[in-house]
Amino acid sequence: MINENIKEIIGKEYKCLNKGFVRLIDIMGDDSSIVQAARVSYGKGTKSVNEDLSLINYLMRNRHTSPFEMVELKFHIKLPIFVARQWIRHRTANVNEYSGRYSEMKNEFYIPESEQLRLQSAINKQGRSEELVDNETSDTVIEQMKNTQEFLFTEYENFLDKKIAREIARINLPLSTYTEWYWKIDLHNLFHFLELRLDHHAQYEIRVYGEVIADILKLAVPYAYTAFEDYMLNSVNLSKKELTALKEIISFDKFDQINFDSHRLKGRELSEFKEKIKKIINI
Amino acid sequence: MINENIKEIIGKEYKCLNKGFVRLIDIMGDDSSIVQAARVSYGKGTKSVNEDLSLINYLMRNRHTSPFEMVELKFHIKLPIFVARQWIRHRTANVNEYSGRYSEMKNEFYIPESEQLRLQSAINKQGRSEELVDNETSDTVIEQMKNTQEFLFTEYENFLDKKIAREIARINLPLSTYTEWYWKIDLHNLFHFLELRLDHHAQYEIRVYGEVIADILKLAVPYAYTAFEDYMLNSVNLSKKELTALKEIISFDKFDQINFDSHRLKGRELSEFKEKIKKIINI
Amino acid sequence: MINENIKEIIGKEYKCLNKGFVRLIDIMGDDSSIVQAARVSYGKGTKSVNEDLSLINYLMRNRHTSPFEMVELKFHIKLPIFVARQWIRHRTANVNEYSGRYSEMKNEFYIPESEQLRLQSAINKQGRSEELVDNETSDTVIEQMKNTQEFLFTEYENFLDKKIAREIARINLPLSTYTEWYWKIDLHNLFHFLELRLDHHAQYEIRVYGEVIADILKLAVPYAYTAFEDYMLNSVNLSKKELTALKEIISFDKFDQINFDSHRLKGRELSEFKEKIKKIINI
Amino acid sequence: MINENIKEIIGKEYKCLNKGFVRLIDIMGDDSSIVQAARVSYGKGTKSVNEDLSLINYLMRNRHTSPFEMVELKFHIKLPIFVARQWIRHRTANVNEYSGRYSEMKNEFYIPESEQLRLQSAINKQGRSEELVDNETSDTVIEQMKNTQEFLFTEYENFLDKKIAREIARINLPLSTYTEWYWKIDLHNLFHFLELRLDHHAQYEIRVYGEVIADILKLAVPYAYTAFEDYMLNSVNLSKKELTALKEIISFDKFDQINFDSHRLKGRELSEFKEKIKKIINI
Asked: How far is B153 from chain A (nearest CA, A)?
């Protein structure tokens, strides 16, 4: 049941950050499974490839999300704990994580590259700015971070040598410690994950994983991924207030002169666009 | 812990359709609970009412959904089974339904008003058109529906008289039979429910319930509901294709002449709008 | 990634009731995937088949449910609406159902076999008794049911002929009407479904589907299914009260004379049993 | 809508560990809400207190979980990050956590009391043993832990002084750092949380929180909590294998001599017990 194109990347290790990775372990379904599930609603059988593509676009555009839930992906992921803590907030997924109660933690920690060592953003309270730390500070900080990690792991090993229970010995290990897990999620919820985690407001260290997963999806479900890019990721949502403002500088009288073909707008999609324009005019 | 304004509508029966209703049974939290939960993230305490309102708008605009999950509502609802079947597809909710296995079903059925007896839409494959059925047909159909419901209930009672198990006796009762349930859901998921069920593509018979619930929310969480209207319900999502088309008829050079104040766009919200405009220009 | 044994039953139609069916459409994983996911927690690699079996038993016994969530199954199911209404209460699943708004419903209805036409149970308020309806009544009732279904479908077609919108025309169709859906669920939640739906308190008409799904699982995940039978389905949960009562008639002094080998109790499992016995003694 | 008894503990800070706490912020419903929701299924109105108690017991015994979902609780909790990581695995809940991206972390860390500094268990691979570390080691380890935490916080502050973005500066903070969150969950899922987290296999540091929450529930939903203790927490689940072994030492012929009254077993509950005994005999 696995797409032939995808077979060769099953199990492949995609590097992330200094020691992390993403591996696609298994996948159930592909673009055609989305179509198959949607068609059970409409009581219709198989159609041409073109109609399939068009149906996937329609479903994505109109947020008919349940057919996308019919594709399921399972990943093996290695990631720093502070990234894992953001990741796990996505609740509609299945997880089996490496346990620091059962097993000894490994001597593996995240160290930012110097170009990721940025100043606190003044505008975005939750993020880093574009501004790099000066070279000297950067070198010092990274050196300090490494030394601290080394010290913490030595202390951890020292506690284990004293036979302290693992579940206690680990409590001073840092948030930069790597953990790993199996993570299984359906395509609809994965797109939602990507929408949030590919955003430039997302912390860089999780965005890196998002980008790798996006690359995998481009191979696994090319039609659905393109639809996701067109209708979700690169779409813009305009509030009522914003529409009333924007309205002032739109020349609606020139609407019919637009070359819709060149924008790949036709049929049902074009009608929907016209409905939206009408909504903006009447707002 | 209950908003004073809301106390008087607790338990009140809001009629829906010919025999249905919505009753708000209980509510946990109000606008201030959304703010309270958000502030734990930011590590900040109470602020002014104005800042609360502004924070709720910010959260809604940026789809920070978890603070809205901190408000919980419980309803008692009476509705036809075919509406219940659409309703139950919203999975993130708690339900206790009247059971036709335990108890006898009641002689209560949905009958459409004649103005709801519309022709099949040719454009929208899943809906009715604007076009009314002619009066004569309408009268006949409604008469037939009533007779059939009466006949079906008599047959059901006849089966029960023969001591046939209730769980079997009921199988030919129609989808128009009324059922009832307790339904508990958090505010974020309720907004999602409303976004879908207030839409003009939703079946009329469930939209009626959506409108009543919307009215209740206007009283229960006025700030959050206004934000929902501004940033979700009345917002327009434009795909990449649509934006490239629209771009042709926008005069970006006049952007700075817009009177943003008159559209209530300022501060962080205005910056976000400018970011979107930049995104459209660069698309 | 599909178990070779299972390939031949993919897509196969297992009949249920008079017109329903279950078809396994796709499956992600098998017994070894459960083990693989569990081992990531323990930080250990592949082991022998025996150790795998033993690990699955351990996980099931101790309700470590997340590794079972790593197997996902997708079914195509045709079932009467009253069964679908019970089924959908299991919320942790993905569903795409045939839509009576988009498409015309088909002339297919559930009719009970005469041996399923039972009297209302006096003890179990929600079920049928063992007692059959007498032959004459049974014949009459089944005949009436068929006639009613025929009549209702003719009326439905008649409404459609009048161009009444499908979403309205269908409201008097009975709960015995067949619908169909794609249904996707993980193995842990499927076991929970089976635990409830294989129970003799479950309505016969849904139990039939449960039994077919159980047969499929015996082929798809034989180790996990056996563990499910041993540790969930055929286990008995005894409340504190029941244990204090039972305690009176247990001869704990003979405990060590039990031939544990003959009951396949050894190692960690035997220790756990002894812990439970200690708990009962001290209750 | 809030139980009078519970009002006085709303907001009260229950201390946990060295710096943590649990505060009940809000509650929707009480024992009577469970009964109310169950009765909608049975189509019955209010009954006597005795019948309410008996119904709650029946629902719990037979795992009719949905009425328990109709009670919702919201807590404010302060806890070490390694505890938070176990806690968040309970997915059916709503969470707003303090953010180390938005705000500076505080100088607050978990330090175990010396009696909790135990040796690794040899039997239970994921836990500590009963055996205490010797006093000298214990003093040294705790001293080291404190020094390390102090050092790590100083380094964190030093990074912040250099204007390093908060989201990066924090990565070497330890898992013992305190965080806090609002956590909202329904009673059924909270009982499931407690079943796992009150168990002696749960890590001590999360069990402490479980015990405080249990105390709160004893006040908030006394009937439901007693039912939880009788039918879940203190029940014993015996597998098929264990039952066949136990059967050897049960004198079933003395069953009728049991004084069921003294064990509070009567009516429907006694019948259910007899059914279980029959199941054991026939296993």
From this structure: 30
**Domain layout of chain A by residue ranges:** 4-110+177-233, 113-175, 240-281
Per-residue pLDDT, averaged over B242-248, amounts to 95
- Output the DSSP codes for D97-151: E--TTTSPPPS-B----GGG-EEEPSSSTTSEEEEEPPHHHHHHHHHHHHHHHHH
The reported pTM is 0.96
Residue C113 burial (CB < 10 Å; 0-12/13-18/19+)? exposed
Mean pLDDT of B136-159: 97
Structure tokens at A105: 């933690």
**CA–CA gap between residue C248 and residue D254 (Å, rounded):** 9
| pLDDT band per the 50, 70, 90 thresholds, residue B103 | very high
- For residue C114, what are its two tokens? 């005469």
Catalytic one of D61, D63, D85, D197 = D197
pLDDT exceeds cutoff 50 at A107: yes
Contact C85 B81 (CB under 8 A): yes
pLDDT at position D253 over 80: yes
CA distance D32 to D48: 11
Nearest to B164 among C95, C117, C160 (CB): C117
- Range in A208-217, C139-148, C221-230, D130-139 the model is least confident about: D130-139
Q: What percent of chain C has pLDDT over 90?
A: 86
Q: Compare all CA atoms of chain C with the CA of A91 and give the residue at the minimum distance.
A: C92
C-alpha–C-alpha distance, residues C230 and C216, integer Å: 17
Which CATH number fits the domain B4-110+177-233, given the four candidates 3.30.1360.170, 3.30.160.20, 1.25.40.80, 3.40.50.1820? Answer: 3.30.1360.170
Whether pLDDT at D1 is above 50: no
Say how far apart CA B2 and CA B27 lie, in whole Å.
Answer: 7
> If you measure CA to CA, which chain B residue comes closest to A58?
B239
Token pair listed for B145: 């529906």
**C125 pLDDT above the threshold of 60:** yes
* Closest to D238 in 3D by CA, of D280, D206, D271: D280
Is A197 marked active-site? yes
Residues of chain B numbered 183-212 and touching chain D (CB < 8 Å): 184, 186
CA–CA distance, A116 with B58 (Å, rounded to integer)? 28
Chain B residues inside the 8 Å CB shell of D67: 96
* Tens-place pLDDT, residues B34-91: 999 999 988 776 678 788 999 999 999 999 999 999 999 999 999 999 999 999 999 9
**Residue D2 predicted with pLDDT over 80:** no
Q: How far does D91 lie from chain A, in Å, by closest CA? A: 6
What Rg do the C-alpha atoms of chain B give, in angstroms? Answer: 24
Residue C244: its pLDDT value, please? 95
CB atoms within 10 A of CB A154: 11
pLDDT for residue D283? 85
Q: Flag whether residue C281 sits within 8 Å of chain A, measured between CB atoms.
A: no
Question: In Å, what is the CA distance from C230 to each residue of C56, C227, D238?
Answer: 12, 5, 9
Rg (CA), chain A: 24
Classify domain D4-108+177-233 by CATH number: 3.30.1360.170
* Reported confidence tier of residue D126, pLDDT bands at 50, 70, 90: confident
Residue B239 identity (one-letter amino acid): S
C-alpha separations of C99 from A41, A42, C164 in Å: 5, 6, 16
Copy the structure tokens of residue A217: 């999806």
Under the phi-then-psi rule, with left for phi > 0, alpha for psi from -120 to 50, and beta for the rest, what region is C236? beta
Distance (Å) from the alpha carbon of D252 to chain C's nearest alpha carbon: 7
Q: Is the pLDDT of residue D165 over 90?
A: yes
- Cα–Cα distances in angstroms (integers) from residue A283 to residues A237, B198, B262, B263, C209, in the given order: 15, 17, 14, 12, 51
